[in-house]
Amino acid sequence: MCDLLDDFLKAGAVGLSTGLMYVPGSSAPFDELEQLCRVVAKNGKTYATHIRSYSDKLVEAIDEQLELARRTGCRLQISHFQAAGAANWHLQQIALEKLERAHDEGLDVAFDCYPYIAGSTVMTMLMPAWSLDGGVESMVARLLDPAQRRRISSEIVATLPWRWHDIYIAGVESEKNKKAIQRNLLELSDSAEVDPVNVMLDLLIEEKGMVNVLLFNQSESNLKQTLSHPLSIIVSDGFYVKGLPHPRLFGTFPKFIGTYCRDHQWITLAEAVSKITDMPAQRFGLKKTGRLQAGFIANVTVFDLNEIDSPATYEQPTLPPRGVKYILRKGTNCLSQTNQLER
Questions:
Q1: Before 24, cis peptide (omega within 30)?
Q2: Cβ(176)–Cβ(247) under 8 Å?
Q3: Which residues are within 8 A (CB) of 232 and not within 5 positions of it... i.e. 6 or more apart?
Q4: pTM score of the predicted model
Q5: What's the structural domain count of the chain?
Q6: C-alpha distance from residue 43 to each of 1, 252, 285 (Å)
Q7: Average pLDDT rounded to a whole number, residues 232-238
Q8: In this structure, are 99 and 231 located in the same domain?
């Protein structure tokens, strides 16, 4: 694996990414990660990670990644840093102080975040890791076995950091269950007169695991802390689903500049622009991009500061942003060609 990683990094890959909160990445031992991060460091690239927990084990998960950076010297990027679940919001300050101290010690560590209190993922992420062993068919078989289903249900109820009304259905495969989209598990539970965990498990069976969810993770004050922090860069983390995507897919950067920079004044315009251009380019070693500078690639977005924003909502997530006048990609105006944004 180390040899393959070395080959890919030498061929131009910008770094290594891990998904330690997802199966099968959650099974990766520390020693294996350490070996891989040494290869990343040797090549001067970036190690970006979805850490093992963003909820009750957030601090421990941050400690693990900082120890990797200390041992290997790799450039560490914490993906989508936040504290998920109201009971865990206080942990963000503790974890953030650890990142700050590590940075002050000389570790090359930073994090990214998106300008929304809700995140988006697959519903199988809410399942115990052992219940996903063997893939979707094995998971469904376990859910159809009464004893294993009781065990799975008990573990979910005991460990879930979200309240049931914080979990919304965003996408499903079947026509039958499309009526569940935009409804939270508590609403579906009340309608069906079935407890929320069984609504969730029944959906996973019927959809063969193919369910996307919106998770209302954060507090507004925690969001302000991460968006305005000097170690953060801004990402969309957007992806398409068979249903309604997260509004960040269409609105991340206009919303960040319009709502949080211009209206809330959480950050200056210069800092905001840097967090979505130059800082990410430097973080991932992208050459000749991220700045308006002679000799750099002319990837430029021109916007009206008085208009820029995103009207996209969780209910209408695909509304195009406002206030974007021109988009130049390698010097060519592609806004008129795509016709996807309002002039």
A1: yes
A2: no
A3: 81, 110, 111, 112, 113, 226, 275
A4: 0.93
A5: 2
A6: 15, 31, 11
A7: 95
A8: yes
User: Residue 73's Cα: distance from chain center in Å?
Assistant: 24
Q: Checking DSSP bridges between strand 324-329 and strand 212-216, what pairing results, if any?
A: unpaired
Contact in structure between 82 and 227 (CB atoms under 8 Å): no
Single-letter residue type at 36: L
Q: How far apart (Å, rounded) are the C-alpha atoms in residues 262 and 268?
A: 8
The verdict on residue 252 lying in a domain is: no
Give dist(CA 162, CA 88) in Å, integer.
Answer: 10
Strand boundaries in 20-157, DSSP class E: 46-50, 75-78, 109-113, 118-122
* Pair (10, 131) in one structural domain: no
Give the distance from CA 244 to its chain's centroid: 17
Q: Is residue 261 part of a domain?
A: no
| 183 part of a folded domain | yes
Q: What is the CATH number of the domain that holds 74?
A: 3.20.20.140
Model confidence over 53-106: pLDDT tens digits?
A: 999 999 999 999 999 999 999 999 999 999 999 999 999 999 999 999 999 999
* CB contact set of 283 (below 8 Å; sequence gap of 6+): 46, 75, 77, 110, 233
The H or E element that residue 208 is part of is: none
* Sequence-separated contacts (24+) of 121-124 with Cβ below 8 Å: 121/212, 121/213, 121/215, 122/209, 122/211, 122/212, 122/213, 123/200, 123/203, 123/204, 123/209, 123/211, 123/212, 123/213, 124/23, 124/204, 124/209, 124/211
